[in-house]
Structure formats: structure tokens, C-alpha cells
Amino acid sequence: MVSVLKILLVQYEAMTFKPWEWKKPPVVLNCYGPRLRHVYIKNSINFWESLGEKILFIQETPIKSLCQDKYDITPGFIKIYQGTDASFNSEATMAYTKRKASTTTGLVGANIIIRPGSYTIKNLLTHEFGHAFGYTHVEEIGHIMHPVTEKMGDKFWIP
Q1: How far, in Å, CA of 86 to CA of 88, rounded?
Q2: Per-residue pLDDT in tens (0 to 9) along the chain, 159 residues
Q3: Are 80 and 41 a contacting pair, CB within 8 Å?
Q4: Under DSSP, is residue 65 helix (H, G, I), strand (E, B) or coil?
């Protein structure tokens, strides 16, 4: 049975553009591996840093103890993983972000799961970092947080 609080939190998140934020800057951990080059991660982080988001640092080399389970969200980390086709709910889904938040501490941790090879899709990783920083989808063509990759752009504005 789902608690009333959980239902209210899901409704709050669905109706709010940025329902969650980090109290302390997270560490970004590349659990995807060397195929996801540092430049892709850094460019995506730079986009969000220009809007005031902060990270502690990017850990480029995977840390085995933290990367072994892509379903485990580690407090203080945004971890990036390569998914498998079975990880995605449809052929159209290229990536998704799971995040954990608390009403008292805000965002606790997040995992970005990317379909193999799709990290090179323009704006995809930046969009997923938006979710990891607490943002939800925006149904405005050209917005970085648009849910459809083909309609996503490199613009950001508060709806």
C-alpha cells in the first residue's frame, strides 16, 4: 500500500518545475566507462553551472564499489551508467534519470541511465543532468527539458 505522503510527493513533483534541489553540491561519477568521454560530461555540466547549479567534481574513473549496482542511488552522487535495452520502457527512450529526494534534505542522489551509444545525441546528457539537478519536463519546443529528443533544444527558461 502506497502511503499518502508518497502520493502527495509524486503529485508535488509532477506539478512543480523544480521540486527538488541539492543542499550540497554532488560528485558526478562516470560509471558508464571510458566510452563516455570527459568532454561530454563537462559540456553538460557547464550548461547547468552557467545557470547556477554546482557540482563538487567529476570522478572520471569508475569506483567499483559505488558503480556495481545501477539501481542503488548513492547519497551525494550523480552516477552515469550505460543501460541495456531491457533497462528502457520503450524503443523511443534514449535515457532516464532516477533520483532520490527527501522532504527535509532535498535531493539525496541520482542515477542517469543512457542507452548504449546515445550519449552523443545532442542535448541528451544535458537534459538528463537537468533531471539530476531536480528539474522536470517542459512541453515547450526548444527547451532543454522537453521530453521528446527531437523537440529538445539548447535553451532554458523558467516556464
Answers
A1: 6
A2: 556 555 555 555 555 778 889 999 999 999 999 999 999 999 999 999 999 999 999 999 999 999 998 889 999 999 999 998 777 878 888 999 999 998 888 999 999 999 988 888 999 999 999 999 999 999 999 999 999 999 999 999 988
A3: yes
A4: helix
Share in percent of the chain as helix, strand, coil (round to 5)? 30, 20, 50
Alpha-carbon gap, residue 50 to 52, rounded angstroms:
6
pTM of the model: 0.89
Asked if 47 and 135 touch (Cβ cutoff 8 Å), the reply is no
Q: What angle do CA 68, 71, 77 make, to 5 degrees?
A: 75
β 95-102/77-82 pair status: unpaired
